[in-house]
Amino acid sequence: MSFFDSLNISASGLTAERLQMDVTAENLANAQSTNNGNPYKPQAVELQAIGSGNTFQSQLSSALGGQTQPAGGVEVAGIVSENVPPQLVYDPGNPQANAQGYVKEPNIQPVTEMTNLISESNAYQADVTAMNTSKQMYSETLGILK
Predict the structure, then answer these.
(1) Which of 73, 86, 78 lies closest to 40 in space, CA to CA?
(2) Is the pTM of this model over 0.90?
(3) How far apart are CA 92 and CA 115, in angstroms?
């Protein structure tokens, strides 16, 4: 591992978590959005590890063998629409209601989305803490070398 790999790994996590929080906030904002009977489809972020073979065992083996491997991290593989059926809400006065008086609304559970948002926020804070710890270690290392 190079000197700044820990900062790069933390930065990749910050980027990924920020996008996840944005998508979750968009889902919450559109929880009741319909467009001429076509409800908003909730979105989800797919993440993937950067590099292959970035397990602890492979890193340890390469470090003991003097070999270097690319640093790990995470990247966004894509944003996908979740395949959930819309929920039907009885509202005969709504202009978008069907003949039976039901309106198709997005099947977004605010409690689940808020739980996801809290989890993503905690992961973001953990990445910030890891980055700050790395910066502090680098600073103290440079202080020792003076």
Answers:
(1) 86
(2) no
(3) 32
Question: Taking CA 125 as the corner, what is the angle to CA 122 and CA 126, rounded to the nearest 5 degrees?
Answer: 90
The predicted pLDDT at position 127 comes to 94
Q: Write out the two tokens for 118.
A: 């809290």
Extents of the domains making up the chain: 5-145
Cβ(71)–Cβ(9) under 8 Å? yes
What average pLDDT does range 92-120 have in this prediction?
A: 92
Give the CA angle between residues 15, 3, 10 to the nearest 5°: 20
Average pLDDT over residues 4-16: 89
Separation of alpha carbons 39 and 59, rounded Å: 46
Q: What is the pLDDT of residues 38-94, one digit of tens each?
A: 899 999 999 988 875 656 677 677 667 766 656 678 889 999 999 999 999 999 998
Residue 86 CA to residue 115 CA, distance in Å, equals 21
28-33 CB contacts, 8 Å cutoff, 24+ apart: 28/108, 28/110, 28/113, 28/114, 28/117, 30/106, 30/108, 31/106, 31/108, 31/110, 31/113, 32/105, 32/106, 33/106
Task: Report the sign of the C-alpha dihedral through residues 64, 70, 75, 77, in that order.
Answer: negative
